[in-house]
Amino acid sequence: MVDNTEQTSTAPSATRRRYMKATGAVAVGALASSAVAADGRTDPSTFSDEFLEAVENGEPVYGVSASLAGMDPVTVTSHVDTDWIWIDTEHAAYDVREVREMMSVIPEDTAGITRVPGAHPKEVERVLDAGSDGVIVPKLRTVEEVEEFVASAYYPPKGDRGVAGSPASTFGLEFDEEYMQTANENVFVVIQVETAELVDNIDRVAQIEGIDSLLIGPADLSSQLGDPLNTDTAEFQRAVDRVRRAAERNDIAPGYWIGLDDAEPFVEEGWQVLSLGSDAALLAQAVQERIDDSP
């Protein structure tokens, strides 16, 4: 959990560290052809300080959604200047073992955050136990659903995440009160705003302790508002503005899935946690641009 109430004036260095996990040691050229050794991501002290500091400083952080099969795309997209990788278990065909493998190839200065299919506590606990730095949940509608989801991301007494020592023991770590406290301090919790009902409840939702970002999902939200994929309507713009203002009032980072759109207007409006689209869409765009530029 990021404490957004204390901002610092020191920005992270422009020179970003790029290296593999010490025990993950998979070269970008070889990628998933090698077996992935267990890495340190289940140790909460290894969570990305750079990502958390950037969010606390009010800086924009740029992420890419993983949707292509295998670890190669995640390795490639996390070793450029991405701040976070979004592992999508809602729509992509990933299981929890693949989530763990993907986390093992993401460098330490990049956050690996998993979108779970729904708010069931066991979905949340499994991806966190697999080494995710945070969780994103889609399509919630009520304050009660959000409260249940947030609680499942934190160990007691702050929440009611299941207390299981096996993930820590796998890496030779001691599962104790300090471990749980460190995990609570570092986990990044994102509520994806995709329903009209959640927009209606957003002022109450934004007051729930433990939320780090409210992130707009424009495709689903526009569809729920009755005009699918049209983000130019007055109703959609009012909803989006209401979410951003609620986030800012409660020291929560406002987020937006901007896809292939230009990021600059979103940053100027104050959006901070930004998804630049999926690896599949970015690959298709790059190939098409290369073809268009060819004689």
UniProtKB/TrEMBL annotation:
Q: Which Gene3D superfamilies match?
A: Phosphoenolpyruvate-binding domains
Record's keyword terms, sorted = Lyase, Metal-binding
- Annotated ranges, domain HpcH/HpaI aldolase/citrate lyase: 75-285
Q: Does the keyword Transcription regulation apply?
A: no
Query: Which GO molecular-function terms appear in the entry?
Result: lyase activity; metal ion binding
So what family is this one in? Answer: Belongs to the HpcH/HpaI aldolase family.
Name of the protein described by the UniProt record: HpcH/HpaI aldolase/citrate lyase family protein
Provide the species name.
Natribaculum luteum
Q: Kindly list the organism's lineage.
A: Archaea, Methanobacteriati, Methanobacteriota, Stenosarchaea group, Halobacteria
